[in-house]
Amino acid sequence: MPRHVAIVMDGNGRWASRRGLSRHEGHRRGKDSVRAVVDAARELGIPYLTLYAFSSENWGRPTTEVSFLMGLFHRYLITETKRLMKRDIRVLALGDTERLPPRVREALAETVAATRDNRGMTVALALSY
Ligand code: FPP
Question: How many domains does the chain have?
Fold first, then answer.
């Protein structure tokens, strides 16, 4: 079993357009996949999972798409922290998180602080990397 798995979260747009769905819907489903992947990695006993979710180049996408993604990150952090606690999962933030909108930065800081003593698995979220 690997000790560290890293995933570049690419292809949401292509996945959606192949199914006649919007790019936004692709990102929304990508967020559901994050939950499934985190749960699976935890069950498999993989100690470290790194998710490359938003690159620095991604800031150049249309404003509506960037805002939509920021909304998804925010909602993920707000809704998933309880699940992460229950599974003893620690969250770390990677990337230039200073560039994130204040509400995302704050939610990220809260999740990182709340989960800091968890030892079951570490999930590193790369945002603005
Ligand atoms: C790249 O696919 C994906 C992104 C820029 C965003 C990934 C983020 C999420 C799925 C939101 C949830 C994430 C977390 C960590 C809660 P793309 O748009 O480049 O797809 P394409 O290459 O097919 O165009």
Answer: 1
For a mutational test of ligand 1's pocket, the pick from 7, 8, 12, i.e. the residue with the most ligand atoms closer than 8 A to its C-beta, is 12
Q: Is 108 in the pocket of ligand 1 (CB under 6 A)?
A: no
Neighbours of 8 (CB within 10 A): 11
User: The whole model's pTM is what?
Assistant: 0.94
Residues forming the active site: 10, 58
Which residue segment(s) compose the domain that 103 sits in? 4-127
Residue 95 Rama label (left phi>0; alpha psi -120 to 50; beta): left
pLDDT in tens, the chain (129 residues): 999 999 999 999 999 999 999 999 999 999 999 999 999 999 999 999 999 999 999 999 999 999 999 999 999 999 999 999 999 999 999 999 999 999 999 999 999 999 999 999 999 999 999
With a 6 A CB cut-off, is 16 part of the ligand 1 pocket? Answer: no
What letter does residue 60 receive in the DSSP assignment?
A: G
Assign residue 31 the CATH number of its domain: 3.40.1180.10
Alpha carbon distance 77, 64 (integer Å)? 20
